[in-house]
Amino acid sequence: MVATETDRDPAVRCHVLFIARSHVEVLFVNTCNDFPMSEMVKVRPGLGIGVMGRLDLAVVGLALLVAGPVLGAGVRLVASGWTPTADDAFIVTRSYDVFSSHPPLTGAHSLAGATGALVHSPGPMLYVLLAVPVRLGLVWLLPLFIATVNALALAWSISLARRRGGVVFACLVAFGSVLLVRSVGPSSMASIWNPSVGRIPLLLLGFLAWSVLDGEQRLLPAVVLVASFTLQAHLSFGPPSVALLAVALVAGIVQIVPSNRAEVSVASKWRPLLLAGLVLAGCWVLPAYEQLTRDPGNLQLVADSGRSDLPRAGSAVAVAATGRTVGLPPGFSRSEAAMNASTAATFGGRSVGDLAAVSLAAVVLTAIVGGAAWSRQRHLWTGGLVALVWLASVAGTAWRFPRNNVLVAFYAFKWFAIAGLFVWLIVALAVVETVGKRRRPAVEPRVTARRPVSVAAMFVCLLVCVLAGGLLALALPRTDGAASSYQPAREIGDAVVAATEPGGHYLIGRSGPYDIGFTSVLGYRLRRAGRTPVTFGAVVNALGEAYRLSGRRCDGIVVLQPSDESVPVKGRSLIVVDVPSPTSTAGRMRVLLVSEGADSSSC
């Protein structure tokens, strides 16, 4: 509450007490007799009305608390000598290509599509996000960069939660976010891998869409931007991204309907929608160009993969996955190992408990929406509606998931924990507001001055939050399965760069058991060093058509093979390194550079 003044009449100055009821509605009560009591006015969210214009200490503190584990994951990866390998190296190479004559027009090669190797994620926004640090040579800092992006997304989510449900609700969101980080894996908070990098932005998308439904139409461009990013990151994010974007767009258009408020100009009502259209065009211009210039285009292939006749998981898996997402214990509260075990169990079919959890969640959310709409609690019924969208997105994703890609489900289904968190948060908000509901005071409250918060108190509070976040970062498990490959990847890359010539064409992709982990490292290091890697088969799907064989002579062929195999006549051994492998034979790898004759054309 904050005191202010109004000049309703030049002769009378009325002191008015503003009592925030929600993010857009303000009830003010006056201390003079000629001003109507309990009049409702609308204000733009975020505008400074007394304390609302000040830095929200609660939001900052909670954001720092949640940022600790996320930033801690990034710092740990950088300190461990993180080097891109496997899919990460492909992603870095394509990010390097953003500022080139052949920028990527699609996203990463995806196994989530039913057509397998032909399908890519819809767009290259992840590559665009990473392009500048990659070009600046800051590849080693990418984990901290992504962790910072995720920390900012969580901070924004907490800020939006504060506006939707108050400080208590923001605290619940912060606590749930820490559990979520533990559930999906702290190391994934700093991962550039596309199935991981879109999870926290997907949580932010839920709060942004809710905010637009609740009246903050100005956030519509942000909804379009974040939804485009998550949709382009990985195909598994498609259902929630499209559904939340559609709901927000419909709400934004409905709010443009002319009102009786003369002070709201037509331009101000249309501006968010027009900006959203510009953002949408900017995010999708490259995928649209690819679709128009190739036959068939990737967007068409993505659509065809969804309509293919391959066996789908079906209703049993949909109910099981949704039940484990919102049931007891909810998915976001489980450990990462328990999450993986739950994913495996979903393909065994539904249980009575799963069906009961899904039914109860649907009934409770429907009751929240109906009851809040009846009592005109807009922030609550819109939140319930978004929670129902999350619930339907989980069921739809699991229902249509291809059964031939069960292994992909172990990372594709992890965003279900976000949906479960959102559902439980809305139920908690409804309970808190029902239990804590108070009657309005019968007498007019007396206006009192707000005592300013001292700088020392602010500093102590923020320091406590920072220390608590740091302790959480230390307490959460430190798992990174690729850590053992960082040193071999650096040694391989250094040896190949030292043995090759700038501007040369070098064939990669004939590496047997090492293709998955280290062929991508060859492409990344050669590309960054000014060489041109050339390849074929599945590696082309990951790197792009610019790296396909063109029928010219190679300046060299880079081969990775077990150390106990013989070296070819024209081959030169560059280095022998120890690599992680379940077998001792494949665990020691030799890097070869094989020269090609003048009349050959392997590249």
Would you write up a description of this structure?
- The structure is a single chain.
- By secondary structure, the protein is α+β, with helices and mostly antiparallel strands.
- It has 3 domains: 2-53; 57-257 and 267-435, no CATH class; 484-594.
- 54% of the residues lie in helices and 9% in strands.
- The chain contains 20 helices and 9 strands.
- The strands form 2 sheets. A 5-stranded mixed β-sheet has the order 6-5-7-9-8, with helices on one face.
- Strand 5 (505-507), helix 19 and strand 6 (532-534) form a beta-alpha-beta unit.
- Helix 7 packs antiparallel against helix 8 (238-254), helix 8 runs antiparallel to helix 14 and helix 13 packs across helix 16 (416-435).
- The longest helix has 43 residues, at 142-184.
- 47% of the residues are buried.
- Residues 1-54 and 442-451 have low confidence and may be disordered.
